[in-house]
Design goal:
Elements lengths: L2 E8 L7 H17 L2 E9 L9 H11 L5 E4 L2 H4 L3 H13 L3 E4 L3 E2 L6
Parallel strand pairs: 1-2, 1-3, 3-4
Antiparallel strand pairs: 4-5
Protein backbone atom coordinates (compact mmCIF):
# COMPACT_ATOMS: atom_id res chain seq x y z
CA UNK A 1 0.00 0.00 0.00
CA UNK A 2 1.63 3.28 -1.09
CA UNK A 3 2.39 5.90 1.54
CA UNK A 4 1.20 9.35 0.51
CA UNK A 5 2.28 12.87 1.36
CA UNK A 6 -0.30 15.56 0.73
CA UNK A 7 0.85 19.03 -0.28
CA UNK A 8 -1.47 22.06 -0.14
CA UNK A 9 -0.80 25.75 -0.70
CA UNK A 10 -2.56 29.05 -1.14
CA UNK A 11 -0.75 32.11 -2.32
CA UNK A 12 -2.16 35.33 -0.93
CA UNK A 13 -3.47 36.92 2.21
CA UNK A 14 -6.72 37.45 0.28
CA UNK A 15 -7.45 33.72 0.37
CA UNK A 16 -8.75 31.81 3.36
CA UNK A 17 -6.91 29.26 5.50
CA UNK A 18 -9.87 26.99 4.78
CA UNK A 19 -8.39 26.65 1.29
CA UNK A 20 -5.65 24.44 2.78
CA UNK A 21 -8.23 22.38 4.67
CA UNK A 22 -10.31 21.95 1.51
CA UNK A 23 -7.31 20.85 -0.54
CA UNK A 24 -6.22 18.38 2.15
CA UNK A 25 -9.73 16.97 2.48
CA UNK A 26 -10.03 16.39 -1.27
CA UNK A 27 -6.59 14.77 -1.41
CA UNK A 28 -7.43 12.51 1.55
CA UNK A 29 -10.64 11.45 -0.19
CA UNK A 30 -8.61 10.49 -3.29
CA UNK A 31 -6.07 8.61 -1.17
CA UNK A 32 -8.90 6.69 0.50
CA UNK A 33 -10.41 5.76 -2.87
CA UNK A 34 -7.02 4.50 -4.07
CA UNK A 35 -6.34 2.58 -0.86
CA UNK A 36 -3.30 4.73 -0.06
CA UNK A 37 -2.09 5.52 3.45
CA UNK A 38 -1.59 9.22 4.22
CA UNK A 39 1.82 9.42 5.88
CA UNK A 40 2.10 13.21 6.20
CA UNK A 41 0.62 16.56 5.20
CA UNK A 42 2.73 19.53 4.15
CA UNK A 43 1.40 23.02 3.49
CA UNK A 44 2.35 26.61 2.86
CA UNK A 45 -0.04 29.45 3.64
CA UNK A 46 0.03 32.82 1.89
CA UNK A 47 3.24 32.01 0.00
CA UNK A 48 3.57 32.36 -3.76
CA UNK A 49 4.08 29.27 -5.84
CA UNK A 50 6.67 31.19 -7.85
CA UNK A 51 9.30 30.46 -5.18
CA UNK A 52 10.77 27.11 -4.20
CA UNK A 53 11.80 28.60 -0.84
CA UNK A 54 8.66 27.57 1.00
CA UNK A 55 9.01 25.82 4.38
CA UNK A 56 6.34 23.21 3.67
CA UNK A 57 7.75 22.35 0.24
CA UNK A 58 11.30 22.17 1.56
CA UNK A 59 10.16 19.87 4.37
CA UNK A 60 8.36 17.68 1.82
CA UNK A 61 11.55 17.39 -0.24
CA UNK A 62 13.57 16.57 2.88
CA UNK A 63 11.15 13.80 3.86
CA UNK A 64 11.13 12.46 0.29
CA UNK A 65 14.90 12.09 0.55
CA UNK A 66 14.44 10.00 3.69
CA UNK A 67 11.98 7.66 1.97
CA UNK A 68 9.03 8.72 4.12
CA UNK A 69 6.46 8.30 1.34
CA UNK A 70 5.96 6.92 -2.17
CA UNK A 71 3.51 9.43 -3.68
CA UNK A 72 2.92 13.18 -3.40
CA UNK A 73 -0.67 14.16 -4.02
CA UNK A 74 -1.83 17.74 -4.55
CA UNK A 75 -4.97 19.39 -5.85
CA UNK A 76 -3.20 20.60 -9.01
CA UNK A 77 0.33 20.94 -10.32
CA UNK A 78 0.24 24.70 -9.74
CA UNK A 79 -0.07 24.06 -6.01
CA UNK A 80 3.45 22.60 -6.13
CA UNK A 81 4.83 25.39 -8.30
CA UNK A 82 3.76 28.14 -10.68
CA UNK A 83 7.12 28.02 -12.49
CA UNK A 84 7.54 25.38 -15.20
CA UNK A 85 11.30 25.07 -14.59
CA UNK A 86 10.64 24.49 -10.87
CA UNK A 87 8.03 21.85 -11.72
CA UNK A 88 10.67 20.07 -13.79
CA UNK A 89 13.15 20.30 -10.91
CA UNK A 90 10.59 18.96 -8.42
CA UNK A 91 9.70 16.12 -10.76
CA UNK A 92 13.37 15.22 -11.22
CA UNK A 93 14.17 15.36 -7.48
CA UNK A 94 11.13 13.33 -6.48
CA UNK A 95 11.70 10.80 -9.27
CA UNK A 96 15.28 10.34 -8.04
CA UNK A 97 13.80 9.27 -4.70
CA UNK A 98 11.22 7.04 -6.45
CA UNK A 99 8.37 9.35 -5.43
CA UNK A 100 5.48 9.73 -7.85
CA UNK A 101 3.45 12.96 -8.20
CA UNK A 102 -0.33 12.71 -8.59
CA UNK A 103 -2.72 15.65 -8.77
CA UNK A 104 -6.48 15.68 -8.64
CA UNK A 105 -6.60 17.92 -11.74
CA UNK A 106 -3.96 16.34 -13.99
CA UNK A 107 -3.68 12.78 -12.67
CA UNK A 108 -0.30 11.06 -12.58
CA UNK A 109 2.44 13.53 -13.53
CA UNK A 110 5.00 12.38 -16.07
CA UNK A 111 7.61 13.86 -18.41
CA UNK A 112 4.91 15.24 -20.70
CA UNK A 113 3.61 17.48 -17.91
CA UNK A 114 7.05 18.93 -17.22
Amino acid sequence: MPRVAIYARYSSQMQREASIEDQVRLCKERADREGWTVADVFSDMAISGASMLRPGLQSLLDHAGRGSFDVVIAEALDRLSRDQADVATLYKRLSFHAVQIVTLAEGEINELHV
